[in-house]
Design a protein that fits this description.
Blueprint (H helix, E strand, L loop, with lengths): L3 H15 L4 E6 L5 H7 L4 E7 L2 E6 L3 E6 L5 E5 L9 E7 L4 E5 L6 E6 H8 L13 H9 L5 H6 L9 H11 L12 H25 L32 E5 L2 E5 L7
Antiparallel strand pairs: 1-6, 2-3, 3-4, 4-8, 5-7, 6-7, 9-10
Helix pairs in contact: 1-7, 4-7, 6-7
């Protein structure tokens, strides 16, 4: 599933390729939404932003399209909308014949239209953006100390840290040398500060890599240069201490950690 870095890469590419474009026609091919089709037609794309794992396409007139890519979704611009792939589930035909397409092979993604004020109210429940100034170590400590949840489960809660997903939560915990099952309120202030720094560093590095080389979910590009230490490396040696990486299940999802670096 695309996480914060990949969604950020999608947004930056859309700002580069679609900002200011006029939508001349919108078609929903999977599930018809006539309101979205009608309300977006004739509007310009005035901004593209990310909030957590959401792509927000802001239009003139006070409307916005929210896209959640889920497992296999992707948004990108093609030069000729008539040449779109068969897995495209919706598209915005732009002036001149190009198209902003919503490509979603497994049809799990979400595409919705909101008034700007409606969208703000929906997204207010999300936690701070980890790459913004609002994500301070003091705020992170305060939230962590109020929770007895295991560290990995806590980090995946979008009301605590917006946009952090399975891969980068595991990598941040490894860098901070914190066991994923450790209760958050039992982690000392110094280690919480180290985890805060690890989250920011991991995401900044991953965003840089994704913006350079990300092309879509499930399509690894050899130019991507974010080195994972534990995620998906069950049984392989930890690059720090050479102990074998282990896999456990938390909340129905795989968690990877190093028993040498991340002692309980």
């Amino acid at each position: 599933m695309p996480e914060l870095p990949e969604v950020e890469a999608v947004c930056r590419k859309l700002r580069r390729d679609a900002l200011g474009a006029l939508i001349v026609r919108t078609r929903m091919l999977r599930k018809r939404d006539r309101r979205l089709e009608a309300r977006t037609r004739g509007r310009r794309i005035v901004d593209v932003r990310r909030r957590a794992k959401n792509v927000l396409i802001h239009l003139d007139g006070g409307w916005a399209v929210r896209a959640h890519l889920r497992m296999t979704g992707n948004l990108y611009v093609v030069e000729d909308v008539r040449l779109r792939r068969e897995t495209v589930r919706a598209y915005f035909e732009l002036e001149g014949g190009a198209g902003l397409v919503f490509d979603d092979p497994r049809t799990l993604g979400v595409l919705e239209l909101f008034r700007e004020e409606e969208l703000t109210a929906i997204l207010d429940s999300l936690g701070p953006e980890p790459l913004d100034g609002e994500f301070t170590v003091e705020r992170f400590r305060e939230t962590a100390k109020a929770s007895r949840r295991p560290a990995k489960i806590f980090l995946l809660d979008q009301t605590k840290v917006a946009g952090l997903g399975n891969i980068y939560a595991a990598e941040a915990l490894h860098r901070a040398r914190i066991h994923p099952g450790r209760a958050m309120n039992r982690i000392g202030e110094g280690r919480l500060a180290r985890l805060h720094l690890a989250i920011v560093d991991v995401l900044e590095n991953a965003v840089e890599s994704a913006c350079y080389a990300y092309t879509g979910p499930g399509s690894y590009n050899s130019e991507e240069n974010f080195p994972v230490a534990v995620y998906g490396r069950d049984g392989q040696p930890c690059p720090v201490c050479d102990r074998r990486v282990r896999r456990i299940v938390q909340g129905g999802r795989s968690t990877y950690y190093c028993p040498g670096c991340q002692r309980y």
